[in-house]
Amino acid sequence: MILATLLQDCSFWKKQILELIMNKSSLCPLIASKVLSLLSTFGVHCRIEIKVCSRQGKQHDGLNVNGKIVARYANTYGNYSSEDCVLFEKQDSDLPVEINPAKRFPLSRCWVSLPAYSSLIVDLNLYEFKTMRKIVDQSVESSVEDGRITSNSILLDDLAIHVHAAWFSPDVVGQRIDSKIGFPSSLLSWNHQSKPWASPVLEIFSVFFGRGRQKTMQIYGSIEVLSDDDDRISYIFNRDEKEALVLSENEKSLPVSDGFRVFDDCSSFQMKFSIKDTEERSAIRGLVDWVASVLGTSLWYEKQLCSLIPGQHGGFAVIHYLIFSEAVSANIIVFLNPKTGCGDVCPKIWGSLIAQYSCYYYTSRFNKDYYRIVLFEKIKDDLIQVSDDSRIPLSRSMIVVPSYTSLIVNVDILCGKSDENFSCATKIEISEGFKIVDI
């Protein structure tokens, strides 16, 4: 499982560009500087360590090394040309390097950040000072493995060069607005007649499907949520090949029809991916595994999380979710009773109904797009009929609400013929049961 986060939140996300190189120059009378930086939507951190040791019992007093070591990225889907990140550079100067497995090679920097769906390539081009004898001119590649260390070795005649990459998930984001609110007590003091009993719940908001600049794809397969406290399987996405979902070039998200799963305090849960496209250009298989020992701590609760699953032939999937320590389920039903303007008793409508929580920030485009619950969303060219009982057909109706907050539903509904607009943001407390909004 790879936990990733938005390393920089900026306007380039509006165009759904996964990574972007920023080039900033500064000029002054004495100094001219140029800064290249990578803005990555789904990023992880890596700490690089290089060691040089002898092979087969051969003894070395040391080496005087010149040359260059750089890190670069693979699998960036053509959004930018990978820039070299210099880890070591020494030309025409004496630098003794001790041949000792306990000593680290003296890098000028050892931390890099990269897209979680990419891999890290380290190029080593080293030679001996004065004699110009080539020591090594090779590359090694490491895949992202969260919480682990990946190692590659270059074996030479008398030396072995070991390149270690330790992977780290960035700090999770999305703290509640009121940081003084503690975790709800397991012994609730609610009046059970007005509020339901709360329990630990996983809520899944969206699934991002990353790929190169390809044409329309047809996606099928399943995304399952399983828990060790029962044998029930909850499907986030489930389609066979005959009912494959069409994703246009600009569409990046899979629909989530049922996104929550209740689990016991001492249990674990998994999110299992098995996604293909009909032309076999992409296959995503993997497991996001939350074991009971990790869920037994409060570190990951109440925070906006995302996990990345790399594809077998390129591409990747990112699932955005929250783990609530205590939440209740809510069944959403929305009725539309237009006063005037629509003309029809059961009008055709378009627009959106988006749910969010009162205690979380949604100031960034990224959070708005991927950490809110889409109840209804249609464009003007895809009108939908309101039912005979004035009920709006929702893409999903069952959601969860944390016990310490309230639900906000953002309404933006338009009638197809008249463009009469029904727009508001209504706040619903858990104990209210239902709410009538007069627009």
Descriptive keywords:
439 residues, Immunoglobulin-like, 3 domains, 7-stranded antiparallel beta sheet, 5-stranded antiparallel beta sheet, 2 helices, disordered N terminus
Account of the protein in words:
This protein has three domains: 7-168, Immunoglobulin-like; 199-329, Immunoglobulin-like (Sandwich), CATH 2.60.40; 331-428, no CATH class. A hairpin with a 4-residue loop joins strand 2 and strand 3. With 439 residues, it is mainly beta. The protein has helices spanning 292-295, 365-370, and strands at 2-3, 19-27, 32-40, 43-54, 63-74, 85-90, 96-97, 111-115, 119-128, 134-143, 149-155, 159-168, 199-210, 217-227, 233-239, 245-247, 253-254, 260-262, 269-277, 283-290, 305-310, 316-331, 348-357, 373-378, 384-385, 398-402, 407-415, 421-428. The chain starts with a strand and ends in an 11-residue tail after the last strand. It is elongated.
What would you say about this model in short?
With 439 residues, the protein is mainly beta. The protein has helices at residues 292-295, 365-370; strands at 2-3, 19-27, 32-40, 43-54, 63-74, 85-90, 96-97, 111-115, 119-128, 134-143, 149-155, 159-168, 199-210, 217-227, 233-239, 245-247, 253-254, 260-262, 269-277, 283-290, 305-310, 316-331, 348-357, 373-378, 384-385, 398-402, 407-415, 421-428.
Order of helices and strands: EEEEEEEEEEEEEEEEEEEEHEEEHEEEEE
Q: Which percent band covers the strand fraction?
A: over 45%
Stretches where pLDDT is under 50 for at least 5 consecutive residues are 1-15, 173-194
Helix content: under 10%
Assign an overall shape: elongated
Q: Radius of gyration over alpha carbons?
A: 27 Å
CATH architecture classification name of the largest domain: Sandwich
